[in-house]
Design goal:
Order of helices and strands of chain A: HHHHHHEEEEEEEHEEEEEEH
Structural class of chain B: mainly alpha
Helix content of chain B: 55-70%
Distance between the termini of chain B: 46 Å
Oligomer: heterodimer
Number of helices of chain B: 4
Distance between the termini of chain A: 74 Å
Radius of gyration of chain A: 30 Å
Chain lengths: 322, 100
């Protein structure tokens, strides 16, 4: 367990007044709050900031901490780091360091298990403890789904880590595996709620919920645009010029596609009903054409190109000459 | 999977987010969450709304921002999210044309 320099965490002087501590906290909270920050360590940083503020905003806790800090500065200078054994986001407990000074806030009744954040105990003002039993913590986790699997209702196995509190209030993590039915037609970012599959409640209170956030796995061939799919179709110059009949992959097997003569790069051909599932049917698949050149040409091909150059009278840069 | 678990009443939402109904009504009055139904008794919330309500409560509590500020923040975060997604999508589309 390492010493936590709460002043350093909030970037304030040890003699800072409560107003500047609050300002520093607010500023850092806006920067690192996991709901607004893309910072890869946002969650961890926000926890540290919250913990520091929890102590420094309270004159009694701050005095207690200052005393320890003075002592710590003498005896623990060598450790000095910011690391402490902390549970992952979603568990919400403060560091061992915090607990060693102020006890386990959950047990002393100041914390709330509603949500990943609400357990941090730094503002219970917004709700009254009496109003609700202490429901277990909600867990939110990503659920990767292949595009192919969205066409029908599928059953997926999901494993996640769950904080478990023993009778002494100690928290450990247990792994849990569930079989989940993923309804057909799910979209990226959609959430599925599994009631009672989150963290255990306090005492007789019910468990929290599990939220699965659907993440569509990027497909090597298909891009997603709402309920439509896009496939890029490479064409030889002569296929674009003369037209062609091709086999094009879709999510559910191959289909025949007719390329009209004189097609262009970027042109979109609609293949009706071969997109993703949506209410009352399917979206469409768009074939976007891309004319590609062969990487090399032999003498004879070169001659043919030259012949075309002589007779085609085509100026692709006409626009520049206006 | 209990499909009814996907839709909540006001009371259930209060319990799921561990907030009193005044807080949830505040969130609705600011248009942060727009439930279906004509009033508190008939309101129905879907899973997406639960997430937004939870996020609104967290931001309100942790950042000390009033509800109008939260409404604005959530709208902007939403837009940012959409733009990021669109940007990623367009980049991927572009890559398919530029890779060779």
């Amino acid at each position: 367990m390492d010493f936590q320099d709460y002043y350093k965490i909030l970037s304030v002087a040890p003699d800072a007044d409560s107003k500047s501590i609050k300002t520093a906290y607010r500023k850092l909270a806006r920067k690192y709050h996991p709901d607004v920050s893309e910072h890869h360590e946002a969650e961890e940083k926000f926890k540290q900031i919250s913990e520091a503020y929890e102590v420094l905003k309270d004159p009694q806790k701050r005095a207690q901490y200052d005393e320890l800090r003075e002592y710590g500065a003498q005896s623990q200078r060598s450790s000095g780091g910011q690391q402490y054994s902390q549970s992952t986001y979603g568990n919400g407990d403060f560091s061992d360091f915090f607990s060693s000074i102020f006890g386990n806030p959950r047990q002393s009744g100041s914390r709330f298990g509603a949500d990943s954040f609400s357990q941090q105990g730094f503002s219970q003002k917004s709700f009254s403890d009496q109003d609700y039993a202490r429901k277990g913590q909600d867990i939110e986790t990503d659920m990767p789904i292949f595009l192919e699997d969205t066409l029908t209702t599928t059953s997926k196995s999901i494993s996640y880590s769950l904080p478990h509190r023993d009778t002494h209030g100690r928290v450990s993590h247990v792994n849990k595996t569930l079989n989940v039915k993923i309804p057909a037609g799910v979209m990226d970012g959609e959430r599925i709620r599994l009631k009672g599959q989150g963290g255990q409640g306090l005492g007789s209170a019910p468990a929290g919920d599990l939220y699965l956030r659907i993440r569509l796995v990027p497909h090597p061939l298909f891009d997603v645009e709402a309920h439509n799919l896009i496939i890029t179709v490479p064409l030889a110059p002569w296929e674009a010029a003369l037209g062609a009949s091709l086999e094009v992959p879709t999510l559910s097997g191959k289909i025949k596609l007719t390329i009209p003569a004189n097609s262009q790069t970027g042109q979109r051909l609609r293949i009706k009903g071969k997109g993703l599932l949506r209410k009352g049917g399917h979206g469409d698949l768009y074939a976007v054409l891309k004319v590609v050149m062969p990487s090399s040409a032999n003498q004879e091909t070169k001659k043919t190109w030259q012949k075309m150059a002589d007779i085609a009278a085509f100026d692709p840069r006409m626009e520049w000459r206006k | 999977m209990d499909l009814n678990a996907q839709y909540l009443s006001l009371e259930e939402l209060c319990y799921a987010t561990q907030n009193p109904s005044q807080t949830i009504i505040e969130i609705i009055n600011h248009g942060i969450v727009e439930p279906e139904g004509t009033g508190p008794e008939t309101w129905v919330f879907n899973t997406q709304m639960i997430s937004v309500a939870k996020k609104a409560c967290r931001l309100h509590r942790d950042l000390g921002v009033d509800w109008s500020g939260i409404a604005l923040a959530i709208r902007l975060l939403d837009e940012l999210d959409q733009l990021r997604n669109e940007n990623q999508r367009l980049r991927k589309r572009l890559e398919r044309f530029l890779d060779e």
